[in-house]
Amino acid sequence: MGVAVTPPPRPLALAVRATRPLYLPTSVLPALAGALVAIGDDAADWWMLPLVLLATLLVHAGVNATNDVEDWARGVDSPDKMDNSRVFSTGLMSVGAGRRLYAGLFAAALAIGLLLCALQTWWLLAYGLAGILGGWLYTGGPRPYKYDGLGDPAIVWLMGPLLTEGAYTAVTGDAFHAPAFWVGLFPGLLITAVLEANNLSDIEGDRAAGVRTLAVRVGFARARALFLATFAATFLVLPVLVLAGLFSAWVLLPLLVLPLAVPIAGAARAAGSGGDEQLVALAPRIAQLHLLGCVLLCAGIVLDRV
Predict the structure, then answer these.
(1) Are the beta carbons of 200 and 224 closer than 8 angstroms?
(2) Distance between CA 175 and CA 239 in Å, rounded?
(3) CA distance 300 to 297
(4) pTM to 2 decimals?
(5) pLDDT averaged over consecutive 10-residue blocks of the chain (306 residues)?
(6) E strand or H helix at 265
(7) Who contacts 244 (Cβ-Cβ below 8 Å, separation ≥6)?
(8) Going by C-beta distance under 8 Å and a sequence separation of 6 or more, which residues neighbour residue 167?
(9) Helix axis angle, 11-18 relative to 49-73, nearest 10°?
(10) How many C-alpha atoms does 303 have within 13 Å on its Cβ side?
């Protein structure tokens, strides 16, 4: 009897895998939340919302592919590292093909963005370019800012207020609206907590690769304290928004995830450095919390606006 040979994945399947699709809702849902702030605005053009979400998805897919390609190309990721797409580290796709992939995704997002600018307002160009350049330069370009420890503060704004405000501006044409901007701090801080948790578990590998993330720079104990502070601040933002009069109490709906957040914080406090299993599990657990929290945030905004 012959031995069955598993055919290699098709190029399209590899391209999708390289974008790490399970993480794409972490940008699409905040964009949706920002756009939903426009409910009740007679000037809102809701037919633009699908284009906004598609452009957001394409940018995020391009960023994810960039991270995997460039981390592998620069020797940051080892062949045995598991928390990536493993498309490049296993040789299934070349670095050159990966770079063409993310360039194409960014180009498609830019084309949609320019269409939205022409139809709505050119203020959108600033938000769109911030997303594309901020995502590419994170691990790409001549001097990636992730490797200099600047990734954490940048992601708060790129994946938070700039994203939510950009979606609102695309739907309404208004360059700035305080509720749409500041509500982005909830998803922005929470996704930054995912990044900080990931960097905590990668301190030894990043240090060996010469990557000076913030966690590497300040050391395990301080990096863990920073993670816990970011995680706590995420849930303090929402009451502040209510006290500031930007939203009603409906925006507090994401606080329903607090019973899930407390054990995560406890696991971080109990974990040790150097590959502790509790530490490795933090990032995916918070990513799931981000998904649920953003769904509740969208629901809360809708209930606030109707």
Answers:
(1) yes
(2) 25
(3) 5
(4) 0.93
(5) 63 92 94 98 95 98 95 81 81 94 98 97 96 96 91 96 98 97 98 93 83 91 95 97 98 98 94 74 93 98 96
(6) helix 258-270
(7) 182
(8) 30, 31, 32, 33, 34, 35, 49, 52, 53, 56, 180
(9) 90
(10) 13
